[in-house]
Amino acid sequence: MEKQEKTSYTYMVECSDGTLYTGWTNNIRKRIQAHNEKKGAKYTRSRTPVKLVYLEESDTKQQAMRREAQIKRLSRYEKEQLIRNRKDMYGDNQI
Known about the structure:
Layout: E1 8-14, E2 20-25, H1 28-36, H2 42-45, E3 51-58, H3 61-72, H4 76-90
Antiparallel strand pairs: 1-2, 1-3
């Protein structure tokens, strides 16, 4: 039987202090919950609550991880542009 890979996601959350955190996951609801329960990334533990502001699907974990690395190299302004463009395309309800 062939192993089917789950959809993976690259995401950005806005922390309570206004900073942006970028990560990847294969279960976005569970990941956001973990961040807000202070069980997520060390960076977000003292910056809760976090709010999902950007989400992008990938076919594989490797693609999501590559995209995470690309986004982390962007400037704050470039990240904000990504967020704005995504909201323009899908509206607030899709995130």
